[in-house]
Write a structure and sequence with these properties.
alpha+beta, Beta-lactamase, 2 domains, seven-stranded mixed beta sheet, disordered N terminus
């Protein structure tokens, strides 16, 4: 038998009036043909314009190249200090480059820096060859990852974003892969660099993303420009507890790309706020345990739940806890104990597991005997 507890919270998120430089919704305009704004924590869409229009994306492609690279590192298949050797094939790429020579050896860390900061086409191919043996095999993996992420409007032909038939994405898909890359915290050590160098200071790097220097809270992520793509960017910025992803595709100039991305981010920060509804460090309740060495066990949410909403809005939040009325020992720390459901403004928002705070073993005859003796002596 399950015991259901419903806790209703009426939360009114009231804040100071939006500052004068905030963008009023009826005046809000992005000149680029495609744009998208997403909150990182919740994945909520805050703005979109022609978000599913397929377009060339230039070096914004490298977000996927970096994503697969970070996956390899986090999975233990690649280390930052591993050495990548440049090939004749990688050396042959023009455009943005770190001038990687054939046979030249460079650490994975410096290769990532060359991609994230200088947008090196040669560095992108070099890491692709190092991971997968060839760029073509690596590109197949890029497409597999795109499919797994639900990027239905994307197809990759290369790993660096140079113009090619059949190489395209959408503003929505770029936000999706940007959000996935952002889950690897290390990436911001690279995308947040303004100026740096390679080869013991001999080669200077300057970030192609000028927002890193000029936009308050900018954290990354990747720019791109080619004849077909024009000027694109996936720009990320964090202020307070809110981390936003702004995507611009097809801007006419670099200056317009930067202005549009800034305006999108300003719109997000000025008009929305992120609130934590459930904290995974907070005990929800204690529930009884029968035939255990302890009589009660605490349950906690498996994860935090946050919610993004417009400033000055009122939101009715219901928290429904569903746990067994009785639990029979043994129970194991971290195992599922029940569920917690969040309903916001009468719509189901999210359901997560509740987990046991600790392990409680089944009481034995020996335990009962010891308990009897202790009680008798006392």
């Amino acid at each position: 038998m399950k015991k259901i507890i419903c806790m209703t919270l009426f939360i009114s998120f009231m804040f100071d009036m939006i500052s004068m430089d905030a963008v009023a919704e009826n005046e809000f305009d992005i000149s680029a043909p495609s744009a998208f704004l997403m909150d990182f924590d919740t994945g909520k869409i805050l703005y979109e314009k022609n978000a599913d229009e397929k377009r060339a994306l230039a070096s914004v492609t490298k977000i996927m190249t970096l994503l697969i690279t970070m996956e390899e590192i986090y999975n233990g298949n690649l280390k930052y200090d591993d050495i990548v050797t440049g090939s004749e094939y990688a050396k042959g790429f023009g455009g943005s480059t770190i001038f990687l020579d054939a046979g030249e050896k460079m650490s994975v860390r410096d290769i990532i820096k060359g991609i994230a900061v200088a947008s090196g086409n040669d560095a992108s191919v070099a890491i692709a060859e190092h991971i997968s043996g060839s760029e073509s095999v690596f590109v197949s993996r890029m497409n597999e990852k795109a499919k797994a992420l639900g990027m239905t409007g994307t197809n990759f032909v290369n790993c660096n974003g140079l113009d090619a038939d059949g190489h395209y994405s959408t503003a929505r898909d770029i936000a999706i892969m940007s959000r996935e890359l952002m889950k690897y915290d290390d990436i911001f050590e690279f995308t947040g660099i303004w100026m740096d160098s390679l080869r013991n200071g001999e080669f200077t790097l300057s970030n192609t993303n000028k927002l890193i220097r000029f936009y308050d809270g900018a954290t990354g992520l990747k720019t791109g420009s080619t004849n077909n793509a024009m000027f694109c960017i996936s720009a990320t910025a964090k202020r307070g507890n809110m981390h936003l992803i702004a995507v611009i595709m097809g801007a006419e100039t670099s200056k317009q790309r930067q202005a549009d991305a800034s305006e999108l981010l300003n719109y997000g920060f000025n008009n929305f706020t992120l609130e934590y509804v459930v904290d995974n460090d907070s005990k929800v309740k204690e529930i009884p345990v029968s035939k255990g060495k302890k009589h009660k066990v605490g349950v906690y949410p498996r994860e935090d739940i946050s919610y993004i909403c417009e400033k000055n809005s009122e939101n009715n939040i219901d928290i429904i806890v569903n746990v067994p009325k009785k639990n029979k020992a043994p129970v194991t720390k971290g195992d599922k104990a029940g569920t917690l459901k969040i309903i916001i403004n009468d719509e189901e928002y999210k359901e997560i597991d509740l987990i046991y705070e600790e392990s409680i073993g089944k009481i034995t005859f020996s335990d009962l005997g010891k308990k009897f003796i202790r009680n008798w002596i006392c």
